[in-house]
Write a sequence for this structure.
């Protein structure tokens, strides 16, 4: 039912009446940011009557370099980032609400000499890249072979380690356009996808990508209000959703903490109870990094993947909630309203071979009743297999498992 509006718009999206141009933004979800990951590269493609033509791809640093004057960095970056004083496109996805982050992106993109008018944005993360390699097989770019096979050097897919090795490892010679390799790889995979006959791979591809849309490894943003409304209705638009019931969204941003989200396991436990003062909520987040620190010595040419995770943490709850306590933050806790929610904000670190814990207790506004209680927990985009969720309401455990997509439960207590 929710998919109907988007399905009706598919001919329009695929350029039936007018050619469409889409901007693809690739997010590295192992360096997690508010909408899923660090913005790494981008590409354009045009589509007319369902026929796709890949225009070009490049890395996000080239886009930043095409802007002659960058504004001063916002307060969030000055507070939590390391050594960054200007506002760059690559840091523009500051809001967990994708449309809000796209507005920030466009405020900088509009200054670029390389800007292209587009009809929509498609956000992809590394899981999509790995899935495409699993479906289409190995790909070779600039003499380097990329595959989805596990690599023991990082306990991650070979493509992930190889990209990090090419882009991030310091060397004593100049690597030509090394940050552009990801864009070139995506370009090659997209051309593979449209080069095969539909009967060969497209069934598997469609099923896989639909799963990635559900789990927010792919998100859509359209300039056409009708298309955007349809994407939001099926929850493919990365929206922080409005609700009159209870709500929770935990958002972590890795500012200058290497690629540590590749190694940090998280458990979010949320408990709802009723007391004399109303409905009380406790959210406990446990972080654990069981891997040793990487060699982050640039002079030795180390590849710095696992380092202390520097985590800017925001917890979104129903507007009007009152904070009782926030334990575990290494900076002064802030409380404010944003995106129609109340936000509790802190900062903490997780060291390699170490752990950390954050515990937040608050009361809900009186408008939320235990007799008709409904809880929506929204997943942060980019989280992949390393985050578990435990939901308890009125002393009863309702969910205990991988936090792979948004969860909603209704229970009177």
């Amino acid at each position: 039912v929710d998919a109907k509006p988007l399905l009706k718009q598919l001919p329009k999206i695929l350029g039936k009446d007018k050619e469409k141009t889409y901007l693809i933004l690739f997010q590295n979800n192992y360096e997690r940011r508010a909408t899923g990951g660090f913005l790494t590269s981008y590409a354009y493609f045009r589509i007319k009557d369902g026929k796709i033509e890949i225009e070009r791809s490049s890395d996000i640093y080239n886009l930043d370099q095409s802007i002659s004057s960058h504004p001063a960095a916002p307060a969030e970056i000055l507070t939590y980032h390391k050594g960054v004083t200007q506002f760059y496109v690559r840091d523009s996805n500051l809001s967990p609400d994708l449309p809000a982050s796209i507005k920030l992106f466009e405020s900088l993109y509009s200054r670029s000499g390389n800007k292209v008018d587009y009809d929509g944005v498609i956000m992809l993360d590394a899981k999509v890249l790995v899935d495409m390699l699993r479906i289409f097989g190995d790909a070779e770019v600039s003499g380097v072979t990329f595959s989805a096979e596990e690599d023991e050097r990082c306990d991650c897919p070979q493509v992930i380690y190889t990209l990090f090795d090419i882009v991030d490892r310091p060397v004593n010679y100049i690597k030509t356009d090394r940050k552009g390799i990801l864009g070139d790889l995506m370009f090659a995979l997209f051309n593979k996808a449209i080069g095969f006959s539909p009967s060969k791979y497209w069934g598997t591809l469609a099923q896989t990508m639909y799963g990635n849309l559900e789990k927010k490894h792919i998100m859509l943003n359209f300039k056409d209000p009708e298309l955007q409304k349809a994407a939001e209705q099926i929850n493919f638009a990365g929206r922080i959703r409005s609700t009159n019931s209870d709500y929770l969204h935990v958002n972590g941003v890795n500012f200058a903490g290497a690629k540590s989200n590749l190694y940090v396991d998280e458990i979010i436990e949320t408990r709802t109870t009723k007391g004399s003062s109303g409905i009380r909520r406790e959210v406990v987040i446990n972080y654990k990094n069981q891997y040793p620190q990487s060699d982050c010595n640039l002079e030795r040419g180390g590849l710095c993947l696992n380092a202390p995770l520097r985590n800017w943490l925001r917890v979104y709850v129903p507007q009007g909630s009152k904070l009782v306590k926030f334990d575990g933050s290494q900076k002064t806790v802030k409380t404010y309203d944003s995106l129609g929610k109340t936000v509790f904000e802190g900062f903490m670190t997780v060291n390699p071979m170490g752990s950390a814990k954050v515990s937040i207790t608050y009361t809900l506004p009186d408008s939320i009743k235990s007799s008709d209680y409904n809880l929506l927990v929204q997943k942060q985009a980019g989280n992949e297999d390393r985050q578990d969720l435990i939901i308890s309401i009125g002393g009863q455990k309702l969910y205990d498992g991988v936090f792979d997509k948004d969860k909603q439960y209704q229970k009177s207590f």
